[in-house]
Amino acid sequence: MKKSSLFCALASLLLFCSCSDNDNEYSLDYRCYFLFDTEVHNVSVIKNALNPLASGIFVYVSTEPRNGVRYVISELNDGKTKGEDALTTEKESRITYALGAYNGLIIGYSSLGNGLYAFDHQCPNCMATSNLYRYPLAWANNGQWVYCKNCKRSYDLNNNGYPNTDGQKLIRYRVEYNGHILIVHN
User: Fold this and answer.
1) What is the pLDDT of residues 147-160, one digit of tens each?
2) Which H helix or E strand runs over 63?
3) Which of 150, 175, 174, 170 is nearest to 158 (CA)?
4) How many other CB atoms sit within 10 Å of the CB of residue 150?
C-alpha cells in the first residue's frame, strides 16, 4: 500500500472514530428514522416548518398505517393546520419508519437562529420516572413551546428544548434537510 493511501485511510478512520461535544446532544435511547421527500409531497404541511426564512414554525409528525398504506400525519404549531401524506412511492414503501419513543416528532427551525431541530413528542421527565411512553406534549405559548399536562413543565422549542423549570430538556434527534429530502435519525 502506498504511503499516501495509508495516510488517507488512517485519517478517514480517525475522523470516523472521533467524537464531538455535540454527540451527547442527540438521543440514542429511542429508535428514530424518518425520511420525507418534499418534492414528492410538494404541498405537504411539513414543508411550512422546513423554511429557514420562516423560523419559529414547528410541525408535529407521526405515522399511521391504514389499509396497507403508511400515512404521515402532521400538525403545525398554530394548532389548526393539519395534513396527511400517503407514502406510496417504491422508496417510501421500503423504509421502516421509527419516530422516537412513541411515534411522534416535532420539527422546525429555531427563531433564535439555532438551526433546524427535531425533538421527540414525549415528555422526557415523565418518561424518566415511569415505564410508560405516553406523555405527549401539547402546543403552548403560540406554538413556540410545548407543554406536558402530566408534570406541568413547558419546553422552549427555539432554545434547544430546555424546560421552564428544573429537569431534562427535550429528547433531540439528528436532522438533515437539503431542500428536497428530510431525514431525522439517531
Assistant:
1) 999 999 999 999 99
2) strand 58-66
3) 170
4) 17
Q: Which string of b and e fits 23-33 if b means at least 16 CB within 10 Å?
A: eeeebeebebe
**Backbone dihedral angles phi then psi of residue 33, each to the nearest 5 degrees:** -155, 120
Q: Where are the alpha helices (DSSP H) in the chain?
A: 3-17, 90-94, 124-128
Longest dimension (CA), the chain: 62
Residue type, 150: N
Helix/strand/coil for 49: helix
| pLDDT one-digit tens code per residue, 103-130 | 999 999 999 988 999 999 999 999 988 8
Q: For 32-180, where are the E strands, in sequence order?
A: 32-37, 58-66, 69-76, 82-87, 98-99, 105-109, 116-120, 137-140, 145-148, 154-156, 162-163, 174-177
